[in-house]
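Project standup — Tuesday

K.O.: blocked on the structure for the chain from last sprint. Re-posting the sequence here as requested.
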Amino acid sequence: MVKLLIIDDDRMNCDLLQAVLTRHGYEVHTATSGIEGLTLFREHAPRVTILDLRMPGMDGLTVLKEIRAMDPHAPVIILGGGATEVQENQARALRVTDFVRKGLSLDVLVEGVNRVVQHPAKTAADGRAAAVTGPAADTGETVLVVDDEQLVRDLLVQFLSLRGYRALGVKDASDALSMIEQAPPDLVVLDLFLPGMNGVEMMRRLRQKEFAGAVIIITGSHDEEVLEEAWALHPQEVLTKPVDLERMLSIIQLVLVCREC
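H.V.: unblocked you, prediction finished:
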């Protein structure tokens, strides 16, 4: 049975989350303090840890740092209710797996846990290899994310930034074309459906300007006519939303290496 660990100073939150996640087939352990949580983490090596940032005594950031010292790649989902922007940025720098706002539907948290569990767990050897190769080193390559959904845009920018890319995000094609005119990125991640000028028209303009960078399209549409229009403009890839982030990363790496060749 897959083990989860909940660390939250609010006992009622712990009991509620434990009841919900147990019904979904998980073995759930709970702790109401950072020290107790770290003890349980060492003892049980949970597949996923759900961590409250704001706790008295040892706060969530300190707990997260200790977890990273023990396991650099242990999946940690942050319960971010009441956390400041500074705290959230510090947590992102420590490679949190996901943020879930307190007060959101429990289904959001359950889906987040299920998503993590479905991916193979990284071993200690993986962690050592990552530490040696330094996956977050600056690649020197710029990626521009064009998507009008702020949540998607912020997630992609954060994901790529943590992997060493200089990632920027804009919400529409007009802003994107202006940025590209001033400083062309190495690669554009482009949503097909945008307010005003859509992704297909933006690609046409990029081709007219002989944009030398790569383009990866992301879309939630299955409209074959629109997709044919997009493919006719020769993007490097078309990915369907919700995007598999690890697959997208592999494609970006491959595309940029091939461009250099």
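K.O.: great, moving the ticket to review. The chain has a mean pLDDT of 85. The domain at 3-132 is CATH 3.40.50.2300 (Rossmann fold).
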